[in-house]
Amino acid sequence: MSESQLSARDRLRLLGAASAAMAAPGALAAPAADRYPRNLTKDDIDRWMNELSNWGRWGKDDSAGTVNLITNAKRKQAAALIREGISVSMSLDADIAPNPAKGPDPAKDPVPSGCRQFTQVKSYGSGGSVTTSLKLGDCPAADAPLPAPAPTPPAEGARDGGGRGNEPRYTWQHVMRSTGQNMRGPSGYAVDTISVNYHGNNTTHFDALSHFIFNGHIYNGYPASVITTWGAEKDDVLAFKDGLVTRGVLVDWPRFKNVPYMGDDEAIYAEDLDAWEKKSGVKIESGDCVLVRTGRWKRVAEKGPLDLNKQAPGLYASAGRWLKDRDIALLGSDVVQDVRPSRVEGVNQPIHQMFLVAVGTPLFDNCDLEAASDQAAKLRRSTFCMMVAPLRVPGATGSPFNPLALF
């Protein structure tokens, strides 16, 4: 078959096979500065979308990508890391409106002086469903008429992305259908409905390989048309329905630098990962889940909201190539992996683009790595057994989830 007869998908699959061969030991002869430059352009990223491609590496029908690198032996290696029997969640609490009976949560909605008043608002959907929300305003004087809710700055979580006008916006909705206050008798069931708009900056979630469309395609060359109003007919989250167990590696950059948290737009480069490996004594290996802690939640507690759409600490694009060379299976962080601004003009999130589309690596966004960081430091280790179970939702481009670190 001539080159002109090959489809774009076939050409990228061939390049993916060549890329896998290049990642073999001994293939990385280029100097680090040349292989992992700090001055990447959009043309470089476009070229890497071909050079780093794993399309076809695990067959033309694959939707699991680098999760294929998590072998039975890798799972056994991970299980052997459970020594103390300690389990630590790496998820945020669901970002829901506070309980009006309790008032605002001081940790999430600090009130420097005075007091606040909650007004509960109900909106009725076309199907008769009821959604409750809260408006937050300053408390009036005892003899003053009730004022309109005062504008309040968005707080982290509901607070990262703002909301409609000055009202808080929450990514989770929790509606009680039956409570202990409306039962017909002394016995019965409490029933509720939970919904979530999980993609974005406020919810700990799993990005499946259908989440990013580049030049009309998703991972493994499937056309964007396979994502319909029903959902993703290819590369959906069901590729991971049996869960994921592998070695987790915590790259705790603030502890490495002996600072509480990274700068708001601080970048981690490939040579930084080399330095971290040397100091930690841990070598990142094939099939690992790499989690990068920036200290986001400590920074938020100290300084207030961080708008990740404008600024975020994280990985520079060439660090992504470094991780691809190590053949990792999964990548996550307490932000959204990419440093922002990306420092690559014309490419907003090169890490997301390369890993979800070309490399085929699922991503974990907005993890809470603080407790895992403390536990790892206490035990003087950076590795643990990582357990992940995304929801089995056919057609979903990802899932909210609760990743666990077992020490």
Characteristics:
2 domains; Glucose Oxidase, domain 1; two-stranded antiparallel sheet; 9-stranded mixed sheet; alpha/beta; single chain; 407 residues; 15 strands
Characterise the protein shown here.
The chain is an alpha/beta fold. It folds into two domains: 3-92 and 204-406, Glucose Oxidase, domain 1 (3-Layer(bba) Sandwich); 116-196, no CATH class. Helices cover 22% and strands 18% of the residues. It has ten helices and 15 strands. It has helices at residues 8-22, 32-35, 42-51, 72-79, 253-257, 270-280, 296-303, 317-325, 350-359, 370-379; strands spanning 87-89, 116-124, 130-138, 172-178, 191-196, 205-207, 244-252, 267-268, 289-293, 314-315, 330-333, 363-365, 383-388, 398-400, 404-406. The strands form four sheets. A nine-stranded mixed sheet has the order 1-15-13-7-9-11-12-6-14, sandwiched between helices. The chain has a two-stranded antiparallel ribbon with strand order 2-3. Strand 11 (330-333), helix 9 (350-359) and strand 12 (363-365) form a beta-alpha-beta unit. The longest helix has 15 residues, at 8-22. The chain is globular and about 75 Å long. The model is unreliable at 1-6, 21-29 and 110-166 (pLDDT under 50).
What's the topology here?
Blueprint: H1 8-22, H2 32-35, H3 42-51, H4 72-79, E1 87-89, E2 116-124, E3 130-138, E4 172-178, E5 191-196, E6 205-207, E7 244-252, H5 253-257, E8 267-268, H6 270-280, E9 289-293, H7 296-303, E10 314-315, H8 317-325, E11 330-333, H9 350-359, E12 363-365, H10 370-379, E13 383-388, E14 398-400, E15 404-406
Parallel strand pairs: 7-9, 8-10, 9-11, 11-12
Antiparallel strand pairs: 1-15, 2-3, 4-5, 6-12, 6-14, 7-13, 13-15
Helix pairs in contact: 3-9
